[in-house]
Write a structure and sequence with these properties.
With about 270 residues, the protein is α+β, with helices and mostly antiparallel strands. It has 2 domains: about 1-105, Nucleoside Triphosphate Pyrophosphohydrolase; about 140-269, Nucleoside Triphosphate Pyrophosphohydrolase (Alpha-Beta Complex), CATH 3.90.79.10. Helix content is about 20%, strand content about 35%. It contains 4 helices and 14 strands. The chain has a 6-stranded mixed beta sheet with strand order 1-4-5-2-3-6. Strands 9, 10, 11, 12, 13 and 14 form a 6-stranded mixed beta sheet that branches. A hairpin with a 2-residue loop joins strand 9 (about 140-150) and strand 10. The longest helix has 19 residues, at about 90-105. The model has no long low-confidence stretch (mean pLDDT about 90). The structure holds zinc ion (ZN).
């Protein structure tokens, strides 16, 4: 399993595990297809110029994510989403963390306050301290809410402009100064024009596109007519739990909310 609370951050060494990324995609050995974790990459060692970021320990071994500036020979690159959603819970956590730390490193090459180059990270935590103004830059984590809403034995499902054919829940970023529950109520009203009640927390999931933390909720319909927000929601409707359209995969919290909610309705209502 992944252990992230370690005392100091080592530099890359030959016994470590390396996760390779190129332009945000995940690299795997050509001979192994897109099976990232089935076969460990052993014939790669970073040079001092390689952008390597320490991720923690994976079953006692140090893990680094490396941001490569060109494709190495013998590797293929696969979009993160395709690999991430095929992983079990533990590998999902490792890959999510690796990707978010790689994004942090890429996005913080210069101080956001004074523009000074940020050379080195702290040796015990993931922060870069500006040598000019001492401003600290941490990995950015953006809280989002996602909510499954029921009305009797039906679930509200929506298709957004980015999800294309698949139906999902209502989701959105938490605004500055807002609680999670307020964000749930506001997003539902903004995206489909409904009032909801009995908001209950379900679970959370890191969503590395690029650095969201999804907080999942269940809720019940209270009032209003479905009114999709132009430019955001292509269509939204109530669906009987026995007749759901194509929805998000179970590896995502969106899929988990839908299937868990459907099971709850079958057993209790
Ligand atoms: Zn600075």
């Amino acid at each position: 399993m992944l252990q992230i609370g370690v005392n100091s951050h080592p530099i890359p060494h030959p016994e470590a595990i390396f996760l390779l990324m190129y332009k945000g995609n995940v690299l795997t050995l050509e001979s192994h297809g897109s099976l990232l974790f089935k076969h460990q990459i052993t014939d790669f060692q970073p040079t001092p110029e390689t952008q390597s970021i320490y991720c923690g320990q994976w079953y006692g071994k140090d893990v680094f994510v490396c941001r490569l500036s060109k494709m190495p020979k013998g590797f293929i690159d696969t979009p993160l989403r395709d690999i991430l959603l095929a992983q079990d819970h533990e590998h999902y956590a490792l890959l999510s963390r690796a990707r978010q730390l790689a994004t942090w490193d890429a996005d913080h090459q210069f101080c956001s306050r004074c523009g000074h180059p940020l050379a080195n990270k702290h040796d015990r935590e993931h922060t870069k301290i500006c040598s000019n103004c001492h401003h600290r830059s941490y990995p950015r984590i953006s809280p989002c809410i996602i909510v499954s809403i029921r009305k009797g034995k039906q679930l509200l499902l929506a298709r957004g402009t980015t999800t294309q054919t698949r139906f999902s829940n209502i989701a959105g970023f938490v605004e500055a100064g807002e609680t999670l529950e307020q964000a749930v109520e506001r997003e539902v009203y903004e995206e489909v024009g409904l009032k909801i009640k009995n908001i209950r927390y379900y679970s959370s999931q890191p969503w590395s596109f690029p650095h969201q933390l999804m907080a999942g909720f269940f809720a019940e319909y209270e009032s209003g007519e479905i009114t999709p927000a132009p430019g955001e929601i292509i269509e939204a409707d109530w669906y009987d739990i026995h007749c759901l359209p194509e929805v998000s995969p179970k590896a995502s919290i969106s899929g988990q909310l839908i299937y868990q909610h459907a099971d709850y309705i079958k057993e209790n209502l």
